[in-house]
Amino acid sequence: MLSEEPRLFPGEVDMIGHLIRRNGSAFFTEHEKRFILLAGQEKDPFIPVKFIRHVVAGKAAAIKLYRDLKKRGWLLRGEGGVFVPVLPYLEVHLTAHCNLDCRGCSHLAPLVDPWFVKFNHFSRDLRRLAKIFYNISVFRVLGGEPLLHPEIARMLMEVRKFFPFSSIRCLTNGILLPAMKSSFWESCRQANIEIDLSAYPDVLDVEGLRKCCVAHRVKINIDHVKKFYAWINPAGDSDPQAAMNCCRRKYYCPFLSEGAVYRCVVSMNGSVLNKKFDIGIQPEGGVSLYDQHVNGWKILAALNTPGHNCRYCATRFRPFLWGRSKGNVGEWLA
Questions:
Q1: Domain extent for 311
Q2: Alpha-carbon distance 74 to 328, whole Å?
Q3: pTM flag (> 0.90)
Q4: Is residue 48 domain-shared with residue 165, that is, in the same domain?
């Protein structure tokens, strides 16, 4: 019965609603928004396949899609209908390092050694994810700085191959955009990739980058970033559930790395802070995609279950103006 399955964290539905209100169709297709709005009317915030007729035209197409979902093991029959696991959002690093190094970077790029994800590892994980989830509504490729990866064009095409219905975004600081090869722009067009530009004060010719993307027929979304937030509690005495609630009110950022999904990037690489500054954050395992017992429902539940490193996240974030990092621990302390 559905009542025996793990529940999604209510903040996910709230976050999806916030993104729709803020961005309209920017993050979701009309079909996905219809799904979300209908699901939001249910007592359980799962996406119901009983509304599949709203997604595909015609009875024959609906039956075909239903059978395909059932064959892949995505259907769960419960009270009130049939449901499938859908991950609302996922981030992945193509690189861990960056060419800008922002102060207090939430992905800790100023503190890490250069690292590039290997294509075969990346492709293997995507293939496995596509067997676990019907869709990932928003799939964001970032870093570090993703444009530093020499195989980024191939990586973007690979994401689209496994997730044909996702909104796929490439988050970049834009410094390398004018110098990108034609293969990158061709991949963006073919795979319908959107550029999410973080425009920091006095760093870029934002209008020039906008025109560059327009010339290459690639959509660009510009976020003028003036503030960052520090979130680390070095004492490690935060209540884990309170810390997660604080985080989820502002962010929902599941993270994929080397065969596992994490509740956020810090649960994956937070031990870097311990290595650099002797803060007690230790390596924390994510949910392995290759565990024989794993499924989409279990991953969704795990993403909203606090871990031991949540004790090092503050229950109130400290805002500060954007700037370049000097690698001081105070940049990350709330």
A1: 86-331
A2: 46
A3: no
A4: no
Asked if the model's pLDDT at residue 39 lies above 90, the reply is no
Whole-number CA gyration radius for the chain: 20
Token couple for 203: 């760093």
pLDDT 10s digits, 132-157:
887 888 899 999 999 999 999 999 99
Q: How far apart are CA 329 and CA 200, in angstroms?
A: 22
Same domain for 92 and 74: no
> Is pLDDT of 83 > 70?
no
Handedness of CA 34, 46, 253, 317 (dihedral sign): positive
Closest CA to 110 of 93, 118, 122, 98: 98
Distance CA 113, CA 104 (A): 16
Residue pair 76/82 in contact (Cβ under 8 Å)? The answer is yes
Please state, in angstroms and rounded to a whole number, the distance separating the CA atoms of residues 78 and 62.
19
Both 96 and 29 in a single domain?
no
Neighbours of 15 (CB within 10 A): 19
Q: Report the DSSP pairing between strands 81-84 and 47-48.
A: antiparallel
Lookup: tokens for 217? 């027929």
